[in-house]
Task: structure prediction
Amino acid sequence: MTFAKVCLLTIGLALFSGMTVADEPDAERRGELLYLLKHDCGSCHGMTRQGGLGPSLLPEALAKKSDATLFATIMEGRPGTPMPGWRELLSEQEVRWLVQAMRRGDGLVVLAPSQGDRL
Amino acid sequence: MRVLQSVLVLIFLGAGITVAPAQDCLTRGSGDLGVIIERAAGSVVVVDTSARARLFQIDGLGDLSHASVVFSPDERYAYVFGRDGGLSKLDLLCGRLVKRIIQAGNSIGGAISQDGNLIAVSNYTPGGVKVFDAVSLAQIADLPAISDDGHASKVVGLVDAPGQRFVFTLYDAGQIRIVDMKNPKSPQVRVFKNIGQQPYDALITPDGRYYIAGLFGEDGLALLDLWQPDAGVQRILANYGRGKEKLPVYKMPHLEGWATAGRYVFLPAVGQHEVLVVDRATWKETGRVAVHGQPVFVVARPDGRQVWVNFAHPRNDTVQVIDTKSMKIVHTMQPGKGVMHMEFKPRGEEIWLSVRDADQVHVYDTDSFQRMARLAADKPSGIFFTARAHKTGL
Result:
């Protein structure tokens, strides 16, 4: 195949896939993953990701950890702790996307203003 | 005359800023009221369980992504313990927040003392228990959960116990502690060490005698007989998962006092699709019931004839009912995705379920299993009825 044809094929495929970044879940699945992150990961990590039984998942807390570490933690869990492996429920592509979504702070909850201290 | 009019207007305006209009408050009993946590919105809905209706929505209660509630003895006030360390006192008849404090960084639950005068909160950060005056929310005591290695543990499984005591568990250190608050200025703490690996929650039996902590780090539970504390903590149901591979646990089970039905206690198996049945005369397992998923809540109907079970993600769309006479499942239902919590009316004829993903709360008849009503609620989680005000441990 000529170089030109390869280029055309690539562009064609990109257009066909709806111009999404290659190897990323589609828009509907991304929405489902953010919901999972908020509500189900949120059971232990807090819906605001500030932590609970599990540590904070906020961007600043994750900054010092490598992608590989975070990927492995989600896929395999952390033996000896309540962190389960999600391998049976999530694909590698989805976990990779989740790691980046957490680093970006995608879908972070903005809490409604609280009434603070009140007499 | 003009000056007088202006002065009168100012007086009335001034009164309006500080005093809430009396007509907002209901003049009725509160014995059939309840609250529902709207976990994403940070609000609480006050409901009437007789009318099956929403009465009030109270906003601005901070992070309620995990929240629990206790009630004052007069069933007038609800104390909401929020994830962000917020402690909110709500007036159920007026549908409003009376007082709110932020008492910690991260918090998991709380309890009200036997006499109703003290509110205790169990905190993850800083690890420990704090005690407050139930009327004013002024801090009375601070009990950091520091273990021998100098670290503070997350505190779980906080309950009230007879004798004006609180009992709680240190998750990281594997301890159970009893605090006697008869003299609030001088709390008396008793420590039980090495109770087991990673106790994740605890319950107290309705008679206030047995405190049971579930273990995550090993198969088994820790039992403390509060009538014989000198006998120490006993392991029960050791190795219940023997020979079976533990499944990944996507949500921790929760232990509540309503796990007791007659002579049996029904407990969630961690990492298995099972409910464990224990005879409380011997504390030995008498059997297990195979269920649809990993149990999160295992709650007995007040008469003890049924036990209802909900499940962890990804099987949280299903609820099962165990008949305690036959120890068999007599009903399986799919109310919707994300069944978070279940609460019986005090005499058990109906049960309310929160269906998070449907933004609904459902009411079911517990004999016919017919759905009687649906109420709108924003991502509902915990449901708590005022009858808890008269129950030790709830």
The CA atoms of residues 53 and 154 of chain B lie 37 Å apart.
